[in-house]
Amino acid sequence: MRGRPRWAAMSRITTQLRGSLVIAWINGWLAMTRMPVWLASSLTAPASIALMIIFFGGYQYLGIGLIGGISMLIGVNGVGLVGDGAFYRLELKFQNMLIATPLTPVSYTLGLALSSLVYSSPGIAVMLGVLAYMGFITPLDAAPIAAALFAEWLSSSMLGFTISTYLRDTRYAWAIGNIMGFALGTLFPVFYRATILPIPYLAAVSPVSAASVIIQYASGVSHYAEPLVLAAALSLSLQAALFTLMAMYKSKWRSD
Amino acid sequence: MSVLTARGVYKTYDGRRWALRGVDLEIGKARIATLLGPNGAGKTTFVRIASTELLPTKGEVEILGVDAVRHPSRVRPLISIIPQEARPISFITVWEAIYSYLLLKGFSRGDAKRMAEWAMERLSLEPYRGTQLFNLSGGLKRRVLVAMALASNASLIFLDEPTVGLDIISRRSVWDALAELRRSGAAILLTTHYVEEAELLSDEVFIIDSGTVIRRGSPKELLSLAPGDAVVEAYGDSLELDEPHVRLGNRYIIYVDSAVAGSLSTELIGRGMTVTARRKALEDAVIYLLGGWRDEGEAEVGSDE
Fold this sequence. Notes:
The structure holds two protein chains of two kinds.
Chain A: H1 12-34, H2 36-57, H3 62-79, H4 81-91, H5 94-99, H6 105-133, H7 142-164, H8 170-187, H9 207-219, H10 226-249
Chain B: E1 2-12, E2 18-28, E3 32-36, H1 43-50, E4 58-63, E5 66-67, H2 72-75, E6 79-82, H3 94-104, H4 109-122, H5 138-151, E7 156-160, H6 168-183, E8 187-192, H7 195-201, E9 204-209, E10 212-217, H8 219-225, E11 230-235, E12 245-248, E13 251-256, H9 258-270, E14 274-279, H10 282-290, E15 299-302
Parallel strand pairs in B: 3-8, 3-9, 6-7, 7-8
Antiparallel strand pairs in B: 1-2, 1-4, 4-5, 9-10, 11-13, 11-14, 12-13, 12-15
């Protein structure tokens, strides 16, 4: 019995999108449901920082702690693709096998990025649910929150994947992923107000803190001057575009 | 029509040392060709170039008449590759591994299901259909990878050292799978360090050394390129020999006719040497043609005649 790939019949976009969804199914859904320990592990850092902020700061920090937890979870899982990308390429040679398929590097990256979103979704759902239940966010806030989280997810995962393609040893990948997660998620104002910094605009440097600032503002948890929020939104959009272009043109797929 | 044609393929990674120095080869339909050579000879580099993963520094590679260097996206539907040391993802099942790979190759869901079933049946993987791959032996995992390649219906399949590290039973199960691939009409380019594997499976063997093909031919043709039909192996520090031989450290591989193998062995034993005599195998011929595997130490090819 023989079959033929439907190269001609399937449109290019459909093929690529389906490829991304297959990658997300494997690396996101199947991985999460069969190895829930990784799900718990990815929640550890954001949840523990959020809980600490709430315990020591009290109810007034509940909103900011949960918003920080959501932002950090997406950022940590996004840059965590440094590890997944390097592991699949260097240890399993999975990326090398996929080169002999119609999948483009962008579709592969998008698939891995979607899988990081799948991993993040249970934690995000719980934290958003608590925020909504406690009245910090309403359906009216959904659009700016969704846009900020989308741009943060795109930036962090594209950056994580691009870096993974330059690594020559998997052991570096886990370390670099952890360092990046720490730097992006805790050095910048993710779990505290940007106005605590001498230069609040530093919050716009990291996609994680930029998203946090936008969500804090949209939900009314923090009251920022509009130029700061606009700077965060502009920076986040530019980073999303820049890191996506980097993944498209600078990640290593076919080598020279 | 040739499935794979490579002409004058050169590759340097750093602009100074050459990994490939003008490789030429051709593979026809339903044929198994093997690249055989020592570590660092350029086998994997060539496979990576031919499978569109790596760009050559110069040279041409055509797959079914399509330029694989300039139009990689046009040849990718025609090929599958199982890279060196590849492993399937551990937490998915055998069926999921094959099915998802076919979806990524562009098959419709219906075709992917049918082809996955077909490949599992052909490679006796049905009993493991729902087993997660981390529960399987190394041999079975390799067989799953071969099943993925088989199911993909590719015209050309690259297998880079598919049996490295496997026990003999697992290796034989992979060999059966490769024979099945060939029967399905696919051309296969195999790299291996196991000469026995090349001898058993290959229609044609390309001996590659220092980035260039130094000999090519069927296993039988290559066997005939080394003198005699028997080999006497002797261990000693310094041995004066009239017969053609290769020296690997203190090991001498002496190429003789079987008619004189007995008398030579007796003579060498009389001189206090440890000696074995046997029929010449492809491995002996390859050692002769290469002048000894590089990583086994300095080798001298010669005859004192």
